[in-house]
Amino acid sequence: MRRTGPAAAAGRRPAARAGGVNTARRFTAQPFRRERGARYTGAMSGTLRPGDLAKEVFGEELHYGALMAYCFRRFGPPNVGSDDHKDLCRWRISTPMEGVFLDIKIGGSSHTNLMFGYIVEERIELALGRENRAGRRRWRRNVARWAKRRFRDDATVLAAIEEWDAPLPKGETPEQEMARYDRDRDKQEANRRIMEPVWKARREAFGDEIRWCGPLKDRVDAALRAAIADLKRPVYVRDVPINATGTMDHMKGHRRSVQPFHAAGYCVPTAIWEDKDAFSDLLGIAQAHGEGAVGVRAVVAKLGVAKDLDAAHAVRDKLDDNWRHAGRRWWRGAWVETRDDRPAVIVRVARNAPKDVGTGEAVINGVTVVVERA
């Protein structure tokens, strides 16, 4: 079919849009970064159902081991906490929509719908709630009108419909609605049993209905779906491409691959977890001084070792450059750690290094350099 219009004249395909989220533009998911002052709320399933969206992308099963390996390689160590009994770890990543994030939960199950949740800014959740309640009221009115015609000769069902379609108290919050339902639980359950023929007839006439929807929910769903689909994008481990489903065909030449996490290969020493509360306090203090590296550098500066650390890193980089270019195959790299409460550059060489490679300590540009065998 011949296309017409501005997009065709320019030789381009019209951009695909879904609920206000442009899914045709290139989107690359990034690890979650908290906006200062923002308040968030979310769940694994509720107002939104990312697990159902994920089944559309990956199917019913997605192996948790492959998903965990992919997330670790692409996004780094888990960036949010998780349940130490039910979960292995959890990542939170961005979507194309501001204020909407996808949670990836790794547990012991490979059921796709159990692996994905959502978190959104509170303003979005409140707007979704308003849209939900308005859409639900419209749906209830439509069902009630249809049921009164369909069951006009059954007085019992008609009475139950009238009770079910009674106007909700004006300004009632979701919490107040749940509390009211709990108070009238027996009455609600009796009405539900009476109305079972209504729901059966409704399903036969209209199938499985979407009870409510709206433009905002469509936009959020499209954003979550785009983030889930982005997990198909490959990341390389040496020359092997992997994605959320596992190893990919390395002969295809994946052009849309992403770079591994920028700190891949760095370790998280277990010693820092000997006092979990103290380490948690340290992270909290750093976050209070700024997001990410800004907060960490602020804490380091307050400790009075920032200048020493800068000097130590400069020496390490100098050693790296000089020794790497010298072609010393036994060179294992250097890193900075604290010795006697002062930063020091630690150089570890292979055990089979030449015997003329000495070990010991020296001071270079005011920085202690320790050379030791691995």
Topology:
Layout: H1 6-9, E1 17-18, E2 21-22, E3 40-43, H2 50-58, H3 64-75, E4 89-94, E5 100-106, E6 116-121, H4 122-150, H5 155-164, H6 174-183, H7 185-194, H8 196-206, H9 215-229, E7 235-237, E8 240-243, E9 246-247, H10 276-288, H11 293-302, H12 306-325, E10 331-339, E11 342-349, E12 360-364, E13 367-373
Parallel strand pairs: 11-13
Antiparallel strand pairs: 1-2, 3-6, 4-5, 5-6, 7-8, 8-9, 10-11, 12-13
Helix pairs in contact: 2-9, 5-7, 10-11
Overview of the structural elements:
With 374 residues, this protein is α+β, with helices and mostly antiparallel strands. The chain has four domains: 16-122 and 218-243, no CATH class; 125-213; 267-303, no CATH class; 308-374, 2-Layer Sandwich (Alpha-Beta Plaits), CATH 3.30.70. It is 41% helix and 17% strand. A hairpin with a 2-residue loop joins β10 (331-339) and β11 (342-349). The longest helix is centred in the middle third of the chain and has 29 residues, at 122-150. The chain is elongated, with a radius of gyration of 29 Å. The model is unreliable at 1-20 and 326-331 (pLDDT under 50).
